[in-house]
Amino acid sequence: MKTTLTSLAPELIEEICAKIVLTHNSTLAEIKQDLCNLRLTCQQTRNSPIPYLFRDVTLDAQKRRSLSFLSTGAEIQRYVAEHSMVFRYARVVRIRFGSNSGASSNAGWKQIKMPGMSDSFLIPVLSMFQLVKSVEWTVESPDPCPQIIDALSTLPGLTTLILHFNGSPFHEISLAKLDYLQRLSVSNTTDDRFTGDLFAQISQYMETKATLTHVSIETAASGLRFPFPASPRPPVPAVTEAATAPSGSEIDAAPTSPPTPPTVPSCPIQFLRIHGCGFRFKSRPNLSTLTTLEIYHREIPANASIWTILQNANVKLKRIVVDSIPIPLLTYLKSYSGLEKLAVSIPPARNHHQNHEWEWQHMSGHIDHGDFYEKVIGRHHDTLESLSLYKLSPVGDWDTRMEADVETLLRCSRLSTLSIDFDVTDLNKVAIRLSNLLATALQFDHLRLLAINWVITHNKDISLERWGLERNIVEYPIPRPAVFKISTGLNLFEPKLKGDGKRRWQQVTIKPVGDIAMGLGWVL
After folding, report:
1. Fewest CB atoms within 10 Å of the CB: 47, 242, 374, 398?
2. Would you say 343 and 337 are in contact if contact means Cβ atoms under 8 Å apart?
3. DSSP readout, 219-260?
4. What is the pTM of this model?
């Protein structure tokens, strides 16, 4: 019998909805539109997309101005009742609460801000999302921060809070009111005083609540250091005085039980990301649970001391993201095995330092490629799944028969993501080198993404060379199915089956996905 969409079991339609949600290279709006289209297809597909369609909700004050006139409790309750599915299925709420979302300054906010918007509607409605687990809040200067925090504190399942600042708020943000946060991200703070206060709050939260497992800090404020908390303090035991029986009383005093020793909460930090600032320890840190560390040394060389601390504490990280490899990090990487991700990221271009060669050599201590591949890559080859090798890529022709670096890379049998530099200075060799690179990459059975960063040793516009190289990618024959995608920064290529029955890479459009959590690798 022929299978049609209407004959599928409900659980299979739900699986289709789940696949739509996990669609790569699609924006949130496109995913929601696909779910809407599926819901309108027929009666059988009407209900299955609903939990996925309303799972991620955006509260945008600028797009819902008419709602500011729902000023009474009865009107708000009526609105909630009419939109019950939104509140029942929402698990992620994104707040565009203020006046100037998407702008970099506070100029003009008074012309957009509507009186009563926050107090009359959005604050009470925010408290209705009782099943929400994650909140992403774009914080504007005029936002009513205390009221929003009070509303968020009523959500019993809230475990993830992502704060992105467009200016410094006029009002205080009190994180202590949120009792059960597990993941906290703070980005784009600029004011030194406000950022310092926020750092102190995060440190205090880590020290007293002992629930945070993921912390991400990214700031543009200058000269600040994050005060990493001391070991969590034990709760103060209650002082009780034994009751004394009056003289001559026939009532025996109740036997007193020995006091229960106070339980010291552990600080289970697993993910730590620090950008734009240094750090300092109040006392000897407890980093035994840390598995992921993303920290930059190029602008703050003192941050390199963290690797000596980790080595002395015998902490074996699984994932490391850095902008350079100073000597302490190189020593740390040689001290153990089991690393799953090592990413040496490309630093942002600067007007006064377009060539980062001096900075790289200064921070990396003129690392020997052979030593790095033999004693670092070779030590972790059994577990490495993701490699990003800015300034550390193989420099030859990618010939596996002649180059030890490439041969060592091929020992990483579990590799799924590989990012490399590719020198296009010598145009006479670049075509054969690219062919060798693709042939080498095809030997990784589990590779899903190959990211290529075109580089050149002298200042020159390589637009024409880039076009020719990407043309070679499109024309390269793919010998087997289910191979990796290729990213060249500006373009993305996916393997496709052509009309002639042969597989080749085809260019697809890269769509901007403005999701902070996705950039952090957090699943909301």
Report:
1. 242
2. no
3. E--SS-EEEE--SPPPPPPPP-PPPPPPTT-SSPPPPPPPPP
4. 0.81
